Amino acid sequence: MQKNNKAIRFGLDVLILAALFTLVQYLITTGLLNQYYQINLTSMCINIILAVSLNLINGFTGQLSLGHAGFMAMGAYASVIMTQMWDQPFILGLLAACVVAGLGGFIIGVPTLRLKGDYLAIATLALGEIIRVTLQNIDYVNGPAGILGITKMTTWPWLFGATVFTIVVVVNLINSSYGRAIISVREDEVASELMGVNTTKYKVIAFVIGAMFAGLAGAMYAHFFYIIKPETFNFLKSFDILVMVVLGGLGSTTGAIIAAIFITILTAALQSFPAIRMILYALILIIVMVYRPQGLMGNKELSRRTFGRIWGGQK
Amino acid sequence: MSTIMEIKNLEKSFGGLSAVLNFNFHLEQNELVGLIGPNGAGKTTIFNLITGVYKPDQGNIIFNGENIEGMAPHVICTRGIARTFQNIRLFNDLTVLDNVKIAAHKNVPYSFMSAILRTPSFFKGEELIEKEALGYLEIFKLDDKKDELARNMPYGEQRRLEIARAMATKPTMLILDEPAAGMNPQETRELMNLIAQIRHDFQLSILLIEHDMSLVMGVCERIYVLDYGQVIAEGKPEEIRSNKKVIEAYLGEEVE
Amino acid sequence: MLELIQQIVNGLSLGAIYALIALGYTMVYGIIKLINFAHGDIMMVGGFVGFFSLTLLGTNILVAMLVAMLVCAILGVLIEKIAYRPLRTSTRIAALITAIGVSLFLEYTTIFALGPAQKIFPDSAFPLKAYDIAGLSILNKDVFVVVSAVVLMLVLQYIIKWTKTGKAMRAVSLDQEAAVLMGISVDKTISVTFAIGSALAAAAGVMYGVYYSTVNPLMGIIPGLKAFVAAVLGGIGIVPGAMVGGFVIGLLETMVSGYGNSLYRDAVAFGVLILILLIKPTGLFGKDTGEKV
Q: Which residues of C touch B48 (CB under 8 A)?
């Protein structure tokens, strides 16, 4: 009986996803979704991947990382080198992005995750900037001018797949013993250690996975927006992602997704007023932290149960 | 009776200030030993040294024949030592049940990839973890609160949950840091019974810090008295009660 | 040799500016354990206020600096009251995020109100004069910056060591609860700390304007970060440490830029930060206090 339930639920999930995918694909193929909407849809999915992955580090593991854009940069550049300079297919570019960014996460994570709280935050901020400055000084990738004319390889199927993949991995991870271990690190590191959890190991794991997905997002970005420069991935980009995670609620994947969508729409609406957009971000950060530090969703998630209640009208 | 833990010449200073000096100790199988002393005497420091939170400057801690001083806390946990804290350290935003489930993680019955791919071994493993955790909650009479957030539990139940969580790591030695702090006499008595019960049922060896003298004199078989980081007396409760040095340093008034 | 001394002179001026900013970071961290991300931007506001004082009010440079210090002292107190005080019992991460918000707010409100372009300090404010001493060319700019900075630091030392306010500041940073029991108003003391720190940053902002002849809305970010590194280098929370740290970073940066690769100039501070955090996070003058479990 239980097994049947599980199969039914899984089947339903797949059906909904398939429907969503087909609908959007249809809109794109028939041209009903024009260029403007496609750009925003792409940005939305990339932001979702970035927010969900940063939330794994900041929200679930409780380690404030302010250098997420650095990993995005690593993935972007790695994938572009793979596809543009070494003429490899997109899938290899994506793989390269994940591996390089993940490795970066490991190399940066191991020494810095020893630090606590604000020191860790500043260290990651500094390291994100060091990555940017380093890229600016590498001639192979054109330094500050960046790489132009990247072939557009990010199509809807890839985008959809990457976004779903990110969300599924993070959600499955969190709802497991490994996820509980990660959350226990956030809740009380000392107690967690004494319960047998190797807290350093799990901090690094969360960091590496988060970095990997940021790299994936970077690759998606590069192969849609034609150009990448080191400047694109500065600390302001890291703050963009931070705003999404804070707004959505540190510790809620659903919150991260909703906030990512909201921020994408906000960015599009305020395209001609970049200063106002930043002022709004600033206000969001301040107001959320002062008045509702748990963000929109706190650490709750929209689950099937919630949907069931809404549909079924039960209590 | 075999010696389950032996500590020799343990020393620890912080920035030039000696916190623990010349600490020698032994705990026998199934014994219940108390560690008392004025505030700041170094009792919690010793707990932290045993559980690996601090590394000793000198000395050995031998547990079941193995030198554990300097080991990382999570490794020491796997050797079979569990502890509770002076200020409760529960995982506040997790449910009561999840708090206990963490204990199972060191022996998690499925792999990382299994969790992500949601294989059958994952589902079987989760069922096992859930059953075990519920079992512990039942023993400690917390099963009806399993879905409550730890932060929302009343104080006495939080203390019980901390003990339940520690027990879920299947220790052979349990270290309790002021388990009766903040409890009224009735709650303290219930706690005493609980400690006696789990000691018997799980064949535990217990080391406990307490300020509540009725608890200490009532349950401990042996007592170490600490002052300024050094042992000033050791022996059975009756011996300690009448020890001049102890009375001077600490008790000050008659104990019933 | 002469070249080296010239570089040292440049390094000292730069270091003086960093030291003044670093003091604000270190005092605030010492008292409420917060990395005030917005501190560099207060320096920027100070620079702008100085600019407007010179151009709109036609004052001289010293008055401009005093006006900037006053305005920023008030600004610092306001920020603390509105954004940081409500979070005093929250996690430090929450306070840090809020500080980032304040920083962005200051930057982009300035951009929104005044446009992103830089403003040029009028030449009349500080007519350049070069002194030829033993073959070195020392600008009056350098003298001004270093002398003002030293004066301000001496005033600060006096306040901290000899006044009641200073004693209160030290007490609150050592043990807040005990300070309350001694009848010290923690709120007022924290406000004063912010006021003083912000005033020093404002002075640095005006000096920056004199030194580089321009001010722009984002000018506080990089110096702010470098000054923070200086504070950490000296030992965050330790006032003399911030002074020393500031000069060290200033000298280091000038040396690297002069003798090494100027492209990596900014990376020097970041590199130093990573090194300190990994090797001795308590800084040069810091003490190791373990966490109480």
A: 293
